[in-house]
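Below is a filled-in request sheet from our internal design queue. Each sheet records the structural input a requester submitted and the sequence that came back. We keep these sheets so that new team members can see what a complete request looks like end to end.

REQUESTER: design group, bay 2
PRIORITY: normal
MODE: inverse folding
CHAIN LENGTH: 324
BACKBONE (tokenized):
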């Protein structure tokens, strides 16, 4: 199989991208998406490195204005929704915590740059070294992972390129692909990219109470909608999803759909597992979460709604809320 095809399949199927984008403000985001996409100027390797390093340094230095200029509206909206769902302030709390792992591109080889004037993707290969602040550059270099790939996605907004997301493609368990990349002469590799900008997520309300959903899915995919807001689906994994928009005092609604192979719910038997639990979280350190609802095994025998979702109402009572 040609290297082009291997990389395309690997990115599509096997890679987990650790998205490291943050955001600053969402004023006017809807207007950006409502207008037809205006194509940006053609990117080259120098431009890619300049944009990424300026964006990364803005993050390291907590430069709000520069960060706002270089971060896509799509990512800004996602981060804003997560912050307000945790009862945090936006954009004031964007830079809380340690900065994400940012990569020094200078010693990497760019093996792909695909663009269409609306979106672009750059792919770098080499030893992924941590990007350090200016005052720390005399320190010993920190290698996060050797001989792996680093991907950077760009979106064009009003004719200007902005960072959409960036992430590490760890090749430690892909020796064949790594070997071919080391031997490859680095001819241009074209990768699939979006032909239009993604729609912005809905702007969620600030949370009254913080909540999350624990999901365990084995052999199935679980789709979730809580209080009308869709969460990321879970397939063959055990994860916790933040409830976007939070929980309300009183009645709350959860909709879920369990998709077995061939979308046949009658196949939901061992070893397939679909477990869901909803919790209200305390803002006070040390207080335990309160379980509000859980999926019962016999509920899979209920008739779903016409779109295949089960709908259930659960309550956060004043008594329970007083303990949060």
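RETURNED SEQUENCE:
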């Amino acid at each position: 199989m040609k290297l082009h095809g291997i990389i395309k399949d690997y990115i599509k199927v096997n890679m987990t991208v650790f998205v490291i984008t943050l955001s600053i403000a969402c004023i006017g985001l809807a207007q950006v998406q409502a207008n037809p996409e205006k194509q940006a100027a053609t990117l080259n390797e120098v431009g890619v490195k300049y944009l990424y390093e300026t964006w990364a340094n803005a993050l390291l230095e907590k430069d709000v204005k520069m960060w706002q200029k270089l971060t896509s509206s799509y990512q800004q909206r996602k981060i804003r929704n997560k912050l307000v769902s945790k009862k945090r302030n936006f954009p004031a709390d964007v830079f809380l915590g340690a900065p994400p792992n940012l990569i020094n591109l200078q010693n990497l080889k760019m093996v792909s740059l695909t663009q269409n004037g609306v979106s672009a993707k750059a792919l770098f290969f080499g030893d992924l070294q941590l990007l350090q602040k200016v005052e720390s550059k005399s320190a010993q270099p920190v290698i996060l992972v050797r001989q792996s790939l680093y991907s950077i996605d760009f979106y064009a907004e009003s004719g200007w390129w902005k960072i959409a997301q960036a992430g590490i493609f760890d090749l430690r368990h892909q020796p064949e692909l790594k070997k071919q990349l080391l031997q490859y002469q680095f001819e241009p590799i074209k990768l699939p990219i979006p032909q239009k900008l993604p729609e912005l997520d809905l702007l969620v309300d600030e949370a009254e109470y913080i909540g999350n959903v624990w999901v365990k899915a084995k052999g199935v995919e679980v789709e979730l909608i809580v209080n009308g807001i869709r969460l990321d689906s879970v397939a063959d994994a055990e994860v916790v999803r933040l409830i976007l928009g939070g929980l309300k005092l009183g009645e709350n609604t959860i909709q879920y759909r369990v998709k077995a192979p061939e979308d046949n719910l009658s196949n939901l038997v061992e070893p397939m597992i679909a477990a869901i639990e909803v919790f209200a979280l305390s803002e006070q350190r040390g207080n335990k979460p309160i379980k509000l609802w859980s999926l019962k095994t016999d509920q899979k025998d209920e008739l779903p709604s016409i779109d295949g979702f089960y709908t259930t109402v659960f309550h956060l009572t004043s008594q329970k809320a007083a303990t949060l």
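SHEET NOTES:
- The two ends are 56 Å apart (CA to CA).
- The CA atoms of residues 94 and 197 lie 23 Å apart.
FILED BY: M.R.
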